[in-house]
């Protein structure tokens, strides 16, 4: 019988780039697969030329002697396996933890979470930095920081599935893969926990103070003779945060992240539009603030640059957000994640740049934009509009508290499940979150100036955003030594470390020596 030429065979599309798949657990949750060990081919122990996948054996050469019906069955099976991914052993603990419990995320959820994490009260501190940097250096530093962090964001999205069969679901896991178990833990745990817990504490302070101002505006002269103190407002805000924190996992707070994103965009827009639409105060100046000595000026500039760095937070949550998405060979998780991140950071730019430029144009070195807005224009702006602005700040702080606290909740529950080998009950989970909320409350009461330390916070946590991702790319992806890619990432990484040290020193010096209090509000 005449043999059919190879050109008549049905062509099977090549398997796309390997990406870690998902499978359904008996409980209905999704969990990542551990990487399968590669074995040698035959008896020689040599590694195969290409990584094995569940569809490797379904090739045109394998199908050539098989009839058409069987060929269709195998082709359909190949498509199914490409859709569901590897058939490897599950890690049951991941199905019990808040970050990896649900993998139903999509590009919309990624946009909501990134926008909620990436813009907030820190945007309103940017005019403070411009007061020390001036127009030119302020705009230049903000632009460079934005482009730099957008590049490191792309790196983190790509490294989430850098190793086939393995998903790095948390920032600490990726740091350990790049720097080693112990060094990665030491380098990543402190700044990420500091970002999560420190931001949560600052949100309690800002949210409580804003609720007090909202109450004063709405109530006016009709307020009772014994209004709540600032600390009592902190307690009210903390209680609201604890109630909302009972949502079980990261995907379940997507609605809250949407609320946080919408409120952040709205109040940032309202603040700068209301500021530039009113007549400017006659005493404002646009020259950088002059200080008595050269050293004082240098350290104040470093502190101001730390404020700019602090404006771009949220990279400690990128891998966690991407971990909420399903991933298969045909539909890897980095595709919807990057789509959502691009949309989110477009809106973040539309918030940060107008607030920084418009706020500085309207008030100059008066620095605190909301205080300046309230002090200079409280009689010109309708009281209802001013109250709405403050109420939107409260809603945004409530939403941001949830997403920044989720990695801490995940750590609590990971410690519990690893010891007991069972998932957290509702009561245990609730207990962890109530405990965490009140710990942040007591820290905020003990350190009420924490929201003033934007420059110091920016310096201490800068490596998470600007330095570590560059090092991770070189150590995991291993670009050609001495190539442009190799030099570019090493230089960016070490520049980030140097800036971190300089900004931290500037923040400490400004706090201790000059007594600079970058308070978001000044409660009565």
UniProtKB/TrEMBL annotation:
Q: Which UniProt keywords apply?
A: Amino-acid transport, Membrane, Transmembrane, Transmembrane helix, Transport
* Compartments reported by the entry: Membrane
Could you tell me the superkingdom of the organism this chain comes from?
Eukaryota
**InterPro entries of this UniProt entry?**
AA_transpt_TM (IPR013057)
Q: What is its main location?
A: membrane
Write out the transmembrane intervals.
124-151, 183-206, 253-274, 294-312, 343-364, 385-406, 426-447, 454-476, 488-512
Gene Ontology biological-process annotations: amino acid transport
| Domain (Amino acid transporter transmembrane) ranges | 104-512
Q: Name one Pfam family in it.
A: Aa_trans
According to the record, the residues making up region (Disordered) are 1-51
- Point to the regions of Low complexity compositional bias: 26-39
Identify one Gene Ontology CC term for this UniProt entry. membrane
Protein's recorded name: Amino acid transporter transmembrane domain-containing protein
What is the species listed in this Swiss-Prot or TrEMBL entry? Eucalyptus grandis (Flooded gum)
Q: What is the lineage of its organism?
A: Eukaryota, Viridiplantae, Streptophyta, Embryophyta, Tracheophyta
